[in-house]
Amino acid sequence: MTETRMMAAKTFFARLNEGRREWLTADQLVNGCEEFFRLNNFTSIERNQEFEASLPFTSPIVGSDGKQTIATILRPRLDKYDMNFLGSLESVLFAILDNYENSTLALVTDSLSYNHLAGAEDLGVAIENLMDEGMYLLFVNGRSGFALFDEYKKISMPVAVLED
Which tens digits make up the pLDDT trace of 71-129? Predict the structure, then answer.
């Protein structure tokens, strides 16, 4: 019988990252996204999809479940010096939100980035602002482990975990 229990976010990410020392590559993140989309019943998954807007953008992988489309942008390693990247990310987010109905953007990163995000105030505030506008944050660990967040405050809240 499968049970759901709550686990502290830091404990959840420590387990997600247990034994890992190497950062995932962009290709590994794409493969992890594809697995995430498949496990969550996204029926349409496309690679390298172009989005036409005032700021043209190519998403490495896009998933749609018929109700919502999630375009992705990859950043294998987030750190406190990523402020320029986040400015560009904001432009892409608004281009997608403004030009595509029922679509949003997910920033996909290695789950090892959690500690950098939790420990860098400027980075956290910038990510929070983007998430307030509708961006998702997907952590991938390369071993069938995922954590998708639609609100920044949930990143530090207990995580529901299924156990057999």
Answer: 999 999 988 777 788 888 999 999 999 999 999 999 999 999 998 887 778 888 999 99
Global pTM reads 0.92
Q: By the 8 A CB rule, do 152 and 131 touch?
A: yes
The amino acid sitting at 47 is: R
Q: What are phi and psi of 59, to 5 degrees?
A: -90, 130
Instruction: Specify whether the CB–CB gap between 137 and 106 falls below 8 A.
Output: yes
* Dihedral, CA of residue 89, residue 87, residue 74 and residue 137, to nearest 10: -70
Domain 3-163: CATH class, spelled out: alpha beta
In the chain, domain spans: 3-163
**What is the C-alpha to C-alpha distance for residues 149 and 152, in angstroms, rounded to an integer?**
7
CA atoms within 13 A on the CB side of 67: 2
* Tens of pLDDT, residues 128-154: 999 999 999 999 998 878 899 999 999
127-134 long-range contacts, Cβ below 8 Å, gap at least 24? 127/86, 127/152, 128/152, 128/153, 129/90, 130/86, 130/89, 130/90, 130/93, 133/90, 133/93, 133/94, 133/97, 134/93, 134/97, 134/104, 134/105
